[in-house]
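Progress narrative, work stream C.
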Amino acid sequence: MDDPHSGGGKCAAFLRRKGIIFSAKVYGIDAMAAMAQGLFASLLIGTIIGTLGEQLGLSLLVGIGNYAKAATGPAMAVAIGYALKSPLLVLFSLIAVGGAANALGGAGGPLAVYFVTIIAAECGKLVSKETKIDIIVTPFVTISAGVLVSLAFAPAIGKAAIAVGGAIMWATELQPFFMGILVSVIVGMVLTLPISSAAVCAALGLTGLAGGAAVAGCCAQMVGFAVMSFRENKWGGLFAQGLGTSMLQMGNIVRNPRIWIPPTLAAAVTGPLSTCLFALEMNGPAVASGMGTCGLVGQIGIYAGWAADIGAGKKAAIMPFDWAGLILICFVLPALLAPVFALPLRKLGWIGENDLKLDL
Protein backbone atom coordinates (compact mmCIF):
# COMPACT_ATOMS: atom_id res chain seq x y z
CA MET A 1 0.00 0.00 0.00
CA ASP A 2 1.07 3.60 -0.62
CA ASP A 3 2.36 5.50 2.38
CA PRO A 4 -0.28 8.24 2.86
CA HIS A 5 2.57 10.65 3.58
CA SER A 6 4.44 9.76 0.40
CA GLY A 7 4.09 11.64 -2.87
CA GLY A 8 2.17 8.76 -4.43
CA GLY A 9 -0.20 8.53 -1.49
CA LYS A 10 -0.90 12.26 -1.49
CA CYS A 11 -1.53 12.20 -5.24
CA ALA A 12 -3.96 9.29 -4.94
CA ALA A 13 -5.78 11.00 -2.09
CA PHE A 14 -6.02 14.23 -4.09
CA LEU A 15 -7.47 12.41 -7.12
CA ARG A 16 -10.02 10.65 -4.91
CA ARG A 17 -11.03 13.94 -3.38
CA LYS A 18 -11.49 15.36 -6.87
CA GLY A 19 -13.61 12.42 -7.99
CA ILE A 20 -11.12 11.38 -10.68
CA ILE A 21 -11.38 7.62 -11.04
CA PHE A 22 -9.28 5.90 -13.69
CA SER A 23 -11.76 3.15 -14.44
CA ALA A 24 -12.69 1.23 -17.57
CA LYS A 25 -16.30 1.23 -16.39
CA VAL A 26 -16.42 5.00 -15.84
CA TYR A 27 -14.74 5.90 -19.13
CA GLY A 28 -15.76 2.97 -21.32
CA ILE A 29 -19.33 2.36 -20.17
CA ASP A 30 -20.73 5.27 -18.15
CA ALA A 31 -19.26 8.04 -20.31
CA MET A 32 -20.15 6.34 -23.59
CA ALA A 33 -23.70 5.57 -22.49
CA ALA A 34 -24.12 9.22 -21.50
CA MET A 35 -22.69 10.34 -24.83
CA ALA A 36 -25.38 8.31 -26.60
CA GLN A 37 -28.06 10.13 -24.61
CA GLY A 38 -26.51 13.45 -25.59
CA LEU A 39 -26.62 12.37 -29.22
CA PHE A 40 -30.22 11.30 -28.86
CA ALA A 41 -31.21 14.63 -27.29
CA SER A 42 -29.66 16.63 -30.12
CA LEU A 43 -28.73 15.02 -33.44
CA LEU A 44 -31.22 12.17 -33.40
CA ILE A 45 -34.29 13.99 -32.12
CA GLY A 46 -33.39 16.93 -34.37
CA THR A 47 -33.31 14.61 -37.37
CA ILE A 48 -36.67 13.10 -36.43
CA ILE A 49 -38.29 16.52 -35.95
CA GLY A 50 -36.74 17.85 -39.15
CA THR A 51 -37.86 14.83 -41.17
CA LEU A 52 -41.38 15.19 -39.78
CA GLY A 53 -41.37 18.85 -40.77
CA GLU A 54 -40.20 18.05 -44.30
CA GLN A 55 -42.86 15.37 -44.75
CA LEU A 56 -45.62 17.66 -43.44
CA GLY A 57 -44.31 20.76 -45.19
CA LEU A 58 -43.84 22.60 -41.88
CA SER A 59 -40.77 24.82 -42.05
CA LEU A 60 -41.05 25.59 -38.34
CA LEU A 61 -40.37 21.95 -37.45
CA VAL A 62 -37.48 21.87 -39.92
CA GLY A 63 -35.99 24.88 -38.16
CA ILE A 64 -36.44 23.31 -34.73
CA GLY A 65 -34.71 20.18 -35.97
CA ASN A 66 -31.79 22.19 -37.33
CA TYR A 67 -31.31 23.99 -34.02
CA ALA A 68 -31.32 20.67 -32.17
CA LYS A 69 -28.75 19.18 -34.55
CA ALA A 70 -26.54 22.25 -34.19
CA ALA A 71 -26.23 21.50 -30.46
CA THR A 72 -24.83 17.98 -31.01
CA GLY A 73 -21.29 18.62 -29.78
CA PRO A 74 -22.24 20.56 -26.65
CA ALA A 75 -25.00 18.07 -25.79
CA MET A 76 -22.61 15.13 -25.96
CA ALA A 77 -19.95 16.93 -23.93
CA VAL A 78 -22.34 17.93 -21.15
CA ALA A 79 -23.74 14.39 -21.02
CA ILE A 80 -20.24 12.93 -20.68
CA GLY A 81 -19.31 15.53 -18.07
CA TYR A 82 -22.43 14.63 -16.10
CA ALA A 83 -21.49 10.94 -16.19
CA LEU A 84 -18.04 11.87 -14.85
CA LYS A 85 -19.72 13.79 -12.00
CA SER A 86 -18.12 17.08 -13.02
CA PRO A 87 -18.69 20.16 -10.82
CA LEU A 88 -21.12 22.67 -12.30
CA LEU A 89 -18.53 25.13 -13.60
CA VAL A 90 -16.70 22.31 -15.34
CA LEU A 91 -19.96 20.95 -16.72
CA PHE A 92 -21.03 24.29 -18.18
CA SER A 93 -17.55 24.92 -19.60
CA LEU A 94 -17.75 21.64 -21.51
CA ILE A 95 -20.36 23.21 -23.77
CA ALA A 96 -17.59 25.12 -25.56
CA VAL A 97 -15.32 22.07 -25.55
CA GLY A 98 -17.97 19.89 -27.16
CA GLY A 99 -18.62 22.46 -29.86
CA ALA A 100 -14.93 22.71 -30.72
CA ALA A 101 -14.25 18.96 -30.70
CA ASN A 102 -17.31 18.14 -32.81
CA ALA A 103 -16.51 20.83 -35.38
CA LEU A 104 -12.83 19.91 -35.64
CA GLY A 105 -13.57 16.17 -35.71
CA GLY A 106 -15.66 16.54 -38.84
CA ALA A 107 -17.75 13.51 -39.73
CA GLY A 108 -16.01 11.61 -36.92
CA GLY A 109 -16.91 14.32 -34.42
CA PRO A 110 -18.68 12.08 -31.87
CA LEU A 111 -15.54 10.06 -31.18
CA ALA A 112 -13.46 13.23 -30.96
CA VAL A 113 -15.94 14.72 -28.49
CA TYR A 114 -15.78 11.55 -26.41
CA PHE A 115 -11.99 11.58 -25.96
CA VAL A 116 -11.53 15.33 -25.73
CA THR A 117 -14.34 15.82 -23.22
CA ILE A 118 -12.96 13.19 -20.86
CA ILE A 119 -9.57 14.94 -20.84
CA ALA A 120 -11.05 18.43 -20.46
CA ALA A 121 -13.46 17.35 -17.71
CA GLU A 122 -10.72 15.72 -15.67
CA CYS A 123 -8.45 18.76 -16.09
CA GLY A 124 -11.27 21.00 -14.93
CA LYS A 125 -11.97 18.80 -11.93
CA LEU A 126 -8.32 19.04 -10.89
CA VAL A 127 -8.52 22.82 -10.39
CA SER A 128 -12.17 23.13 -9.41
CA LYS A 129 -12.62 25.05 -6.13
CA GLU A 130 -8.87 25.12 -5.50
CA THR A 131 -8.55 28.91 -5.77
CA LYS A 132 -10.44 31.97 -4.60
CA ILE A 133 -11.10 32.93 -8.21
CA ASP A 134 -12.68 29.60 -9.16
CA ILE A 135 -15.21 31.37 -11.39
CA ILE A 136 -12.31 32.28 -13.69
CA VAL A 137 -9.78 29.49 -13.19
CA THR A 138 -12.05 26.48 -13.67
CA PRO A 139 -13.69 27.58 -16.95
CA PHE A 140 -10.33 28.85 -18.23
CA VAL A 141 -8.57 25.54 -17.59
CA THR A 142 -11.46 23.36 -18.80
CA ILE A 143 -12.07 25.25 -22.02
CA SER A 144 -8.39 25.87 -22.78
CA ALA A 145 -7.47 22.23 -22.23
CA GLY A 146 -10.42 21.03 -24.29
CA VAL A 147 -9.89 23.36 -27.22
CA LEU A 148 -6.12 22.80 -27.31
CA VAL A 149 -6.58 19.03 -27.28
CA SER A 150 -9.26 19.42 -29.96
CA LEU A 151 -6.94 21.46 -32.17
CA ALA A 152 -4.16 18.93 -31.74
CA PHE A 153 -6.03 15.64 -31.98
CA ALA A 154 -9.71 15.99 -32.97
CA PRO A 155 -9.10 16.06 -36.75
CA ALA A 156 -6.97 12.90 -36.55
CA ILE A 157 -9.43 11.14 -34.25
CA GLY A 158 -12.29 12.05 -36.56
CA LYS A 159 -10.45 10.80 -39.64
CA ALA A 160 -9.50 7.55 -37.90
CA ALA A 161 -13.09 6.91 -36.84
CA ILE A 162 -14.42 7.56 -40.31
CA ALA A 163 -11.68 5.39 -41.82
CA VAL A 164 -12.69 2.46 -39.63
CA GLY A 165 -16.39 3.04 -40.28
CA GLY A 166 -15.69 3.44 -43.99
CA ALA A 167 -13.74 0.18 -44.06
CA ILE A 168 -16.64 -1.64 -42.40
CA MET A 169 -19.13 -0.14 -44.86
CA TRP A 170 -16.85 -0.89 -47.83
CA ALA A 171 -16.41 -4.49 -46.68
CA THR A 172 -20.18 -4.81 -46.27
CA GLU A 173 -20.74 -3.59 -49.82
CA LEU A 174 -18.06 -6.01 -51.07
CA GLN A 175 -19.13 -9.03 -48.99
CA PRO A 176 -22.72 -8.32 -47.92
CA PHE A 177 -23.42 -11.87 -46.76
CA PHE A 178 -20.50 -12.43 -44.40
CA MET A 179 -20.29 -8.83 -43.25
CA GLY A 180 -24.05 -8.80 -42.77
CA ILE A 181 -23.64 -11.62 -40.27
CA LEU A 182 -20.60 -10.06 -38.60
CA VAL A 183 -21.98 -6.54 -38.20
CA SER A 184 -25.42 -7.73 -37.12
CA VAL A 185 -24.10 -10.12 -34.49
CA ILE A 186 -21.43 -7.79 -33.07
CA VAL A 187 -23.54 -4.62 -32.88
CA GLY A 188 -26.49 -6.59 -31.50
CA MET A 189 -24.33 -8.06 -28.75
CA VAL A 190 -22.86 -4.62 -27.97
CA LEU A 191 -26.42 -3.32 -27.55
CA THR A 192 -27.18 -5.99 -24.95
CA LEU A 193 -23.88 -5.47 -23.13
CA PRO A 194 -23.59 -2.45 -20.79
CA ILE A 195 -21.96 -0.54 -23.66
CA SER A 196 -23.70 1.95 -25.92
CA SER A 197 -24.14 0.49 -29.40
CA ALA A 198 -25.66 3.82 -30.45
CA ALA A 199 -22.50 5.67 -29.43
CA VAL A 200 -20.30 3.11 -31.19
CA CYS A 201 -22.28 3.41 -34.43
CA ALA A 202 -22.27 7.21 -34.19
CA ALA A 203 -18.54 7.32 -33.49
CA LEU A 204 -17.80 5.16 -36.54
CA GLY A 205 -20.37 6.88 -38.75
CA LEU A 206 -21.92 3.49 -39.51
CA THR A 207 -24.57 3.96 -42.20
CA GLY A 208 -25.56 2.38 -45.51
CA LEU A 209 -25.81 -1.41 -45.76
CA ALA A 210 -23.65 -1.81 -42.66
CA GLY A 211 -26.00 0.49 -40.76
CA GLY A 212 -28.95 -1.61 -41.90
CA ALA A 213 -27.21 -4.77 -40.67
CA ALA A 214 -26.54 -3.05 -37.34
CA VAL A 215 -30.24 -2.23 -37.01
CA ALA A 216 -31.06 -5.85 -37.81
CA GLY A 217 -28.75 -7.13 -35.07
CA CYS A 218 -30.10 -4.73 -32.47
CA CYS A 219 -33.70 -5.65 -33.32
CA ALA A 220 -32.87 -9.36 -33.14
CA GLN A 221 -31.61 -8.91 -29.59
CA MET A 222 -34.42 -6.65 -28.37
CA VAL A 223 -37.41 -8.28 -30.04
CA GLY A 224 -35.85 -11.74 -29.72
CA PHE A 225 -35.39 -11.49 -25.95
CA ALA A 226 -38.79 -9.81 -25.55
CA VAL A 227 -40.71 -12.58 -27.31
CA MET A 228 -38.72 -15.61 -26.13
CA SER A 229 -39.10 -14.47 -22.51
CA PHE A 230 -42.82 -13.68 -22.80
CA ARG A 231 -43.81 -16.73 -20.75
CA GLU A 232 -41.70 -15.42 -17.84
CA ASN A 233 -42.19 -11.66 -18.16
CA LYS A 234 -45.56 -11.23 -19.92
CA TRP A 235 -46.53 -7.88 -21.44
CA GLY A 236 -44.41 -5.75 -19.14
CA GLY A 237 -41.28 -7.60 -20.21
CA LEU A 238 -42.32 -7.52 -23.85
CA PHE A 239 -42.50 -3.73 -23.94
CA ALA A 240 -39.58 -3.15 -21.57
CA GLN A 241 -37.23 -5.17 -23.77
CA GLY A 242 -38.86 -4.71 -27.18
CA LEU A 243 -39.17 -0.91 -26.96
CA GLY A 244 -36.62 -0.33 -24.19
CA THR A 245 -33.46 -2.41 -24.16
CA SER A 246 -32.32 -6.02 -24.10
CA MET A 247 -29.66 -4.89 -21.63
CA LEU A 248 -32.23 -5.79 -18.96
CA GLN A 249 -31.24 -9.42 -19.54
CA MET A 250 -27.56 -8.79 -18.76
CA GLY A 251 -27.83 -10.10 -15.20
CA ASN A 252 -29.49 -13.27 -16.45
CA ILE A 253 -26.84 -13.66 -19.15
CA VAL A 254 -24.10 -13.51 -16.53
CA ARG A 255 -25.86 -16.28 -14.61
CA ASN A 256 -26.55 -18.37 -17.73
CA PRO A 257 -24.79 -17.26 -20.94
CA ARG A 258 -26.72 -19.84 -22.98
CA ILE A 259 -29.82 -17.66 -22.99
CA TRP A 260 -27.90 -15.33 -25.32
CA ILE A 261 -27.68 -17.97 -28.07
CA PRO A 262 -31.20 -17.67 -29.60
CA PRO A 263 -31.27 -13.88 -30.22
CA THR A 264 -27.66 -13.96 -31.42
CA LEU A 265 -28.49 -16.71 -33.92
CA ALA A 266 -31.50 -14.66 -35.00
CA ALA A 267 -29.14 -11.73 -35.65
CA ALA A 268 -26.91 -14.02 -37.73
CA VAL A 269 -29.94 -14.77 -39.92
CA THR A 270 -31.53 -11.32 -40.21
CA GLY A 271 -28.20 -9.55 -40.83
CA PRO A 272 -27.45 -11.13 -44.23
CA LEU A 273 -31.13 -11.04 -45.18
CA SER A 274 -31.01 -7.31 -44.54
CA THR A 275 -27.91 -6.78 -46.70
CA CYS A 276 -28.45 -9.36 -49.45
CA LEU A 277 -32.21 -9.69 -49.92
CA PHE A 278 -33.77 -6.41 -48.84
CA ALA A 279 -30.70 -4.14 -49.22
CA LEU A 280 -31.90 -2.34 -46.10
CA GLU A 281 -29.82 0.80 -45.61
CA MET A 282 -29.53 3.25 -42.77
CA ASN A 283 -29.10 6.57 -44.52
CA GLY A 284 -30.39 8.53 -41.56
CA PRO A 285 -28.17 9.50 -38.59
CA ALA A 286 -25.53 6.89 -37.75
CA VAL A 287 -26.56 6.90 -34.08
CA ALA A 288 -29.90 5.32 -35.10
CA SER A 289 -28.02 2.27 -36.45
CA GLY A 290 -27.35 1.19 -32.88
CA MET A 291 -30.80 1.87 -31.42
CA GLY A 292 -32.81 -1.07 -32.77
CA THR A 293 -36.45 -0.87 -31.73
CA CYS A 294 -35.74 1.38 -28.73
CA GLY A 295 -38.55 3.90 -29.09
CA LEU A 296 -38.66 2.76 -32.75
CA VAL A 297 -35.63 5.00 -33.31
CA GLY A 298 -33.90 2.57 -35.68
CA GLN A 299 -36.98 2.36 -37.88
CA ILE A 300 -37.53 6.13 -37.79
CA GLY A 301 -33.88 6.55 -38.78
CA ILE A 302 -34.31 4.27 -41.78
CA TYR A 303 -37.43 6.17 -42.80
CA ALA A 304 -35.57 9.47 -42.40
CA GLY A 305 -32.92 8.09 -44.73
CA TRP A 306 -35.55 7.14 -47.29
CA ALA A 307 -37.04 10.62 -47.11
CA ALA A 308 -33.60 12.23 -47.47
CA ASP A 309 -32.78 10.04 -50.48
CA ILE A 310 -36.06 10.98 -52.13
CA GLY A 311 -35.37 14.66 -51.50
CA ALA A 312 -31.88 14.30 -52.99
CA GLY A 313 -33.18 12.44 -56.03
CA LYS A 314 -31.40 9.19 -55.10
CA LYS A 315 -34.64 7.32 -54.59
CA ALA A 316 -37.86 7.67 -56.56
CA ALA A 317 -40.28 6.56 -53.83
CA ILE A 318 -40.67 4.26 -50.85
CA MET A 319 -41.74 0.94 -52.34
CA PRO A 320 -43.85 -1.82 -50.72
CA PHE A 321 -40.75 -4.04 -50.80
CA ASP A 322 -38.94 -1.47 -48.66
CA TRP A 323 -41.69 -1.55 -46.04
CA ALA A 324 -41.82 -5.36 -46.16
CA GLY A 325 -38.09 -5.56 -45.55
CA LEU A 326 -38.24 -3.12 -42.65
CA ILE A 327 -41.11 -4.94 -40.93
CA LEU A 328 -39.71 -8.43 -41.48
CA ILE A 329 -36.14 -7.64 -40.44
CA CYS A 330 -37.00 -5.48 -37.46
CA PHE A 331 -40.05 -7.21 -36.01
CA VAL A 332 -41.42 -10.38 -37.60
CA LEU A 333 -38.29 -12.47 -38.10
CA PRO A 334 -36.72 -11.75 -34.68
CA ALA A 335 -40.06 -12.53 -33.03
CA LEU A 336 -40.22 -15.89 -34.85
CA LEU A 337 -36.59 -16.97 -34.95
CA ALA A 338 -35.46 -16.36 -31.36
CA PRO A 339 -38.25 -18.47 -29.76
CA VAL A 340 -37.69 -21.21 -32.35
CA PHE A 341 -33.96 -21.30 -31.61
CA ALA A 342 -34.77 -21.30 -27.89
CA LEU A 343 -37.02 -24.38 -28.06
CA PRO A 344 -34.30 -27.05 -28.32
CA LEU A 345 -32.26 -25.25 -25.66
CA ARG A 346 -35.24 -25.36 -23.31
CA LYS A 347 -35.73 -29.08 -24.03
CA LEU A 348 -32.04 -29.75 -23.35
CA GLY A 349 -32.30 -27.87 -20.08
CA TRP A 350 -29.81 -25.22 -21.23
CA ILE A 351 -32.49 -22.59 -20.61
CA GLY A 352 -34.38 -23.15 -17.38
CA GLU A 353 -37.89 -22.06 -16.46
CA ASN A 354 -36.93 -18.75 -14.82
CA ASP A 355 -33.59 -18.08 -16.53
CA LEU A 356 -35.15 -15.20 -18.48
CA LYS A 357 -37.17 -13.77 -15.60
CA LEU A 358 -36.82 -10.04 -15.02
CA ASP A 359 -37.49 -8.11 -11.83
CA LEU A 360 -39.99 -5.65 -13.28
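Work stream C, second folded protein:
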Amino acid sequence: MKKTLLIVFYVSIIACTSVYIPKSYRGTAFKTQSIPGKIECELYDRGGEGIAYHDSDALNNGSGKLNPANGTYLNEFRMNEGVDISYTKSNNIDNNPFNKTIPLLDHLYVGWTVPGEWINYSINVKKSGVYKIAAMYTANGDGAISFDIDNKPATGELKIPSTHNDADTVAWRQWHHWNRVDSLTSLKIAKGKHLITLHIVQHGQMNFDYFEFARQ
Protein backbone atom coordinates (compact mmCIF):
# COMPACT_ATOMS: atom_id res chain seq x y z
CA MET A 1 0.00 0.00 0.00
CA LYS A 2 2.75 2.45 0.92
CA LYS A 3 4.61 1.73 -2.31
CA THR A 4 1.49 2.39 -4.40
CA LEU A 5 0.87 5.71 -2.68
CA LEU A 6 4.45 6.82 -3.35
CA ILE A 7 4.14 6.00 -7.03
CA VAL A 8 0.88 7.94 -7.40
CA PHE A 9 2.39 10.95 -5.63
CA TYR A 10 5.48 10.90 -7.85
CA VAL A 11 3.39 10.83 -11.04
CA SER A 12 1.35 13.74 -9.70
CA ILE A 13 4.49 15.83 -9.15
CA ILE A 14 5.64 15.18 -12.72
CA ALA A 15 2.24 16.27 -14.09
CA CYS A 16 2.35 19.48 -12.06
CA THR A 17 5.73 20.52 -13.44
CA SER A 18 5.39 19.55 -17.13
CA VAL A 19 6.98 22.19 -19.35
CA TYR A 20 6.24 22.15 -23.07
CA ILE A 21 7.76 25.54 -23.95
CA PRO A 22 10.56 24.93 -26.51
CA LYS A 23 13.98 24.91 -24.83
CA SER A 24 15.32 27.27 -27.49
CA TYR A 25 12.83 30.00 -26.56
CA ARG A 26 14.58 32.99 -24.96
CA GLY A 27 11.53 34.99 -23.90
CA THR A 28 10.15 35.10 -20.37
CA ALA A 29 6.70 35.70 -18.94
CA PHE A 30 5.88 39.33 -18.19
CA LYS A 31 3.32 38.13 -15.67
CA THR A 32 2.07 34.63 -14.92
CA GLN A 33 -1.20 34.08 -16.77
CA SER A 34 -3.15 30.89 -16.23
CA ILE A 35 -5.96 29.06 -17.92
CA PRO A 36 -8.79 28.43 -17.34
CA GLY A 37 -8.99 32.22 -17.37
CA LYS A 38 -8.19 35.28 -19.45
CA ILE A 39 -5.00 35.92 -21.35
CA GLU A 40 -4.67 39.71 -21.22
CA CYS A 41 -3.14 40.70 -24.55
CA GLU A 42 -0.94 43.53 -23.25
CA LEU A 43 0.82 41.13 -20.85
CA TYR A 44 2.87 39.49 -23.59
CA ASP A 45 6.31 38.03 -22.87
CA ARG A 46 9.51 39.92 -22.25
CA GLY A 47 12.33 39.52 -24.76
CA GLY A 48 11.73 42.15 -27.40
CA GLU A 49 11.41 42.16 -31.17
CA GLY A 50 11.91 38.80 -32.84
CA ILE A 51 11.75 36.89 -29.54
CA ALA A 52 8.61 37.88 -27.64
CA TYR A 53 6.88 39.51 -30.60
CA HIS A 54 7.20 40.80 -34.14
CA ASP A 55 5.75 44.22 -34.89
CA SER A 56 5.73 46.12 -38.18
CA ASP A 57 7.65 49.02 -36.61
CA ALA A 58 9.63 49.67 -33.45
CA LEU A 59 7.35 52.48 -32.23
CA ASN A 60 4.57 51.94 -29.71
CA ASN A 61 1.80 53.87 -31.47
CA GLY A 62 -0.36 53.93 -28.34
CA SER A 63 1.64 54.20 -25.12
CA GLY A 64 3.73 57.38 -25.22
CA LYS A 65 2.35 58.54 -28.60
CA LEU A 66 -1.46 58.55 -28.91
CA ASN A 67 -1.45 58.54 -25.11
CA PRO A 68 1.30 61.08 -24.33
CA ALA A 69 3.96 60.21 -21.77
CA ASN A 70 2.77 61.94 -18.61
CA GLY A 71 3.93 59.71 -15.79
CA THR A 72 0.72 57.65 -15.63
CA TYR A 73 0.54 53.86 -15.78
CA LEU A 74 -2.05 53.72 -18.56
CA ASN A 75 -0.36 56.26 -20.85
CA GLU A 76 3.13 54.82 -20.47
CA PHE A 77 2.52 51.06 -20.21
CA ARG A 78 5.43 49.33 -22.00
CA MET A 79 5.85 52.45 -24.13
CA ASN A 80 9.44 51.62 -25.16
CA GLU A 81 8.43 48.33 -26.79
CA GLY A 82 7.17 47.76 -30.31
CA VAL A 83 3.78 46.21 -29.54
CA ASP A 84 1.14 48.95 -29.80
CA ILE A 85 -0.92 49.38 -26.63
CA SER A 86 -3.76 51.68 -25.68
CA TYR A 87 -6.67 51.56 -23.22
CA THR A 88 -10.43 51.96 -23.25
CA LYS A 89 -11.62 55.51 -22.60
CA SER A 90 -14.83 57.30 -21.66
CA ASN A 91 -16.22 60.51 -23.25
CA ASN A 92 -18.10 58.51 -25.90
CA ILE A 93 -14.93 56.86 -27.18
CA ASP A 94 -15.00 53.23 -26.04
CA ASN A 95 -18.31 53.63 -24.22
CA ASN A 96 -20.09 54.55 -27.46
CA PRO A 97 -23.58 53.44 -28.55
CA PHE A 98 -22.22 51.26 -31.36
CA ASN A 99 -20.68 48.66 -29.07
CA LYS A 100 -22.02 45.12 -29.33
CA THR A 101 -20.45 44.31 -25.94
CA ILE A 102 -19.78 46.91 -23.26
CA PRO A 103 -16.04 47.06 -22.47
CA LEU A 104 -14.44 47.78 -19.12
CA LEU A 105 -13.03 51.31 -19.13
CA ASP A 106 -9.37 52.07 -18.38
CA HIS A 107 -8.52 48.58 -19.63
CA LEU A 108 -5.35 48.01 -21.66
CA TYR A 109 -5.47 46.39 -25.09
CA VAL A 110 -3.23 45.65 -28.09
CA GLY A 111 -4.01 47.51 -31.31
CA TRP A 112 -2.68 48.87 -34.62
CA THR A 113 -2.41 45.26 -35.80
CA VAL A 114 -0.97 44.41 -39.22
CA PRO A 115 -0.85 41.04 -41.03
CA GLY A 116 2.40 39.22 -40.32
CA GLU A 117 2.71 40.47 -36.73
CA TRP A 118 2.79 37.96 -33.86
CA ILE A 119 2.94 38.01 -30.06
CA ASN A 120 4.05 35.35 -27.55
CA TYR A 121 2.47 34.49 -24.20
CA SER A 122 3.96 32.05 -21.69
CA ILE A 123 1.04 30.51 -19.83
CA ASN A 124 0.27 27.93 -17.19
CA VAL A 125 -2.51 25.45 -17.92
CA LYS A 126 -3.96 24.24 -14.62
CA LYS A 127 -5.95 21.30 -16.02
CA SER A 128 -5.66 19.26 -19.18
CA GLY A 129 -8.71 19.45 -21.38
CA VAL A 130 -10.49 21.01 -24.31
CA TYR A 131 -10.76 24.78 -23.99
CA LYS A 132 -13.25 27.02 -25.73
CA ILE A 133 -11.68 30.37 -26.65
CA ALA A 134 -13.57 33.66 -26.46
CA ALA A 135 -12.25 37.00 -27.75
CA MET A 136 -12.93 40.61 -26.72
CA TYR A 137 -12.00 42.78 -29.69
CA THR A 138 -12.77 45.44 -32.28
CA ALA A 139 -12.24 45.04 -36.03
CA ASN A 140 -12.54 47.72 -38.70
CA GLY A 141 -13.20 45.12 -41.38
CA ASP A 142 -13.24 41.32 -41.47
CA GLY A 143 -9.92 39.88 -40.33
CA ALA A 144 -8.30 36.62 -39.33
CA ILE A 145 -5.88 35.39 -36.68
CA SER A 146 -4.35 32.06 -35.73
CA PHE A 147 -2.70 30.47 -32.70
CA ASP A 148 0.40 28.33 -32.31
CA ILE A 149 1.09 26.26 -29.21
CA ASP A 150 4.74 25.59 -28.40
CA ASN A 151 5.76 26.80 -31.88
CA LYS A 152 3.38 24.41 -33.65
CA PRO A 153 0.27 25.57 -35.59
CA ALA A 154 -2.80 24.81 -33.48
CA THR A 155 -5.84 26.38 -35.13
CA GLY A 156 -5.49 27.46 -38.73
CA GLU A 157 -7.13 30.75 -39.68
CA LEU A 158 -9.84 32.03 -37.34
CA LYS A 159 -12.20 34.63 -38.77
CA ILE A 160 -12.67 37.83 -36.76
CA PRO A 161 -16.00 39.43 -37.78
CA SER A 162 -15.95 43.13 -38.56
CA THR A 163 -17.42 45.57 -36.04
CA HIS A 164 -17.54 48.38 -38.62
CA ASN A 165 -20.89 50.17 -38.58
CA ASP A 166 -21.75 52.70 -41.29
CA ALA A 167 -24.23 54.33 -38.91
CA ASP A 168 -21.31 55.74 -36.93
CA THR A 169 -20.23 58.91 -38.73
CA VAL A 170 -17.17 59.44 -36.52
CA ALA A 171 -14.52 57.81 -38.73
CA TRP A 172 -11.85 57.09 -36.09
CA ARG A 173 -14.40 55.42 -33.83
CA GLN A 174 -14.69 52.49 -36.23
CA TRP A 175 -11.72 51.08 -34.26
CA HIS A 176 -13.67 51.39 -31.00
CA HIS A 177 -16.80 49.27 -31.56
CA TRP A 178 -16.26 46.48 -29.06
CA ASN A 179 -17.59 42.95 -29.43
CA ARG A 180 -17.08 39.58 -27.75
CA VAL A 181 -17.11 36.28 -29.63
CA ASP A 182 -17.82 33.54 -27.11
CA SER A 183 -16.67 30.58 -29.20
CA LEU A 184 -13.86 31.49 -31.57
CA THR A 185 -12.51 27.93 -31.57
CA SER A 186 -11.67 25.05 -29.23
CA LEU A 187 -8.23 23.66 -28.41
CA LYS A 188 -7.04 20.58 -26.54
CA ILE A 189 -4.20 21.60 -24.21
CA ALA A 190 -2.26 19.50 -21.72
CA LYS A 191 -1.66 20.60 -18.16
CA GLY A 192 1.62 22.46 -17.71
CA LYS A 193 3.53 25.45 -19.03
CA HIS A 194 3.07 26.37 -22.68
CA LEU A 195 3.96 29.05 -25.20
CA ILE A 196 0.97 30.48 -27.08
CA THR A 197 1.59 32.65 -30.14
CA LEU A 198 -1.06 34.98 -31.53
CA HIS A 199 -0.64 35.62 -35.28
CA ILE A 200 -2.32 38.45 -37.18
CA VAL A 201 -3.14 36.73 -40.47
CA GLN A 202 -5.54 38.86 -42.52
CA HIS A 203 -6.51 42.53 -42.79
CA GLY A 204 -5.26 43.74 -39.40
CA GLN A 205 -7.10 46.84 -38.15
CA MET A 206 -8.04 44.85 -35.04
CA ASN A 207 -7.76 45.62 -31.32
CA PHE A 208 -7.59 42.78 -28.79
CA ASP A 209 -8.37 43.16 -25.10
CA TYR A 210 -8.20 39.51 -24.03
CA PHE A 211 -8.74 35.89 -25.01
CA GLU A 212 -10.62 33.82 -22.46
CA PHE A 213 -10.04 30.07 -22.21
CA ALA A 214 -12.93 28.12 -20.64
CA ARG A 215 -12.55 24.38 -20.02
CA GLN A 216 -15.31 22.34 -21.65
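Residues 2-215 form a domain with the Jelly Rolls fold (CATH 2.60.120.260). No further action is required on this item.
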